[in-house]
Amino acid sequence: MKFKKLMEKRATLQEEMEMLIKTAETEERAMSQDEMKSFDEKEKEIKDIDETLSREERARLAEKAKTDKESKEVEDRAVEEERAFTEYILSAVENRSAVQLTQGNNGAIVPTTISNKIITAIKEQVPFLKCAQVLSTSGKLSVPVYNEDETNFIKADYVDEGAALTDNVGKFTTIDLNGYVVGALSLISNKLKNNTEINVTDFIVRQVAKAISSKLMTEFTVGSTKIKGVCEAKATVTAASATAITYEELLKLKRSINQAYRANGVWIMHPETYTVVLSLKDANGRPYFEEGKGLFGRPVIESEDMAKIGSSAKVIVFGDLGSGYTIKGTTAVEVQVLREKYIDRNMIGVIGFAEYDASITDTKAIGLLAMGA
Asked: Is-contact 217 303, C-beta < 8 A?
């Protein structure tokens, strides 16, 4: 923006100088002392602008050279880390380069470049990691939760002179998120050692990320004794039937969560359930919903881990995951190479380890539709 303004200023000064000369020529006279003074001042200002622009250009080129150098260093580091990781996987020698694979609790800690590739690939395959509140940290994490109920809540009321307000307030509690280790085993043929057309690192990234993603989708959806899933939501709507869902029940589910969270809500259901929902029609035979446009204007996440329609099944979740569901994400990925266990199959095993935990941290933000008994 500054460069553009200086160029515009220079052009204006140039025009004014030409106008001074043209005026004198038109009147067939020499330039007056004031005109010559004005001309010289404009000429000096143009020279100053040129020198300023020249210095700015040199500074820009110097910054670009610095950025290019840093980018080159990052690229070189990434190549070196990938080479070290590949050597660690395919050979018994662990330390062949300047990149060190330090030992963690579960195995060798993968270089940052490779770790970020795996974490990014997991995020792309697990929609929860895009919608929920994700806190990337190591160790135990205590999430503060503000709870209100029928007896403990903040209430506004009229205030009479001398009267005191009721101090019924909610209470702060905490939900502890631990680092539960999720492992994924990938088997690699030793033929990869001699196959230069296959990128071993990318193969490992895809296989490990795919396996971990599948496990996380299950955990974030239905949960277990460790990671708590969204199906543990307390705000429940029960369908009248064990085999059918109505438009009114979907609307009731949406309105079962606090109004402040509806605008950012997402729907989560099994693909077969979504098919049933898309088939719902009004009295004139027109579908209530259109595929690809969500439900009531909010997107749908299809999860194979959600229960299908059946007696007492928890089939649909609706809520603002960014406000009501917190995930403690991994900060690093570790690997363990099993070189002898699969030697009779001419393969090696690579186990990827990552730490995750999750829980509903605001019960007012997430609702659940369960089928009738």
From this structure: yes
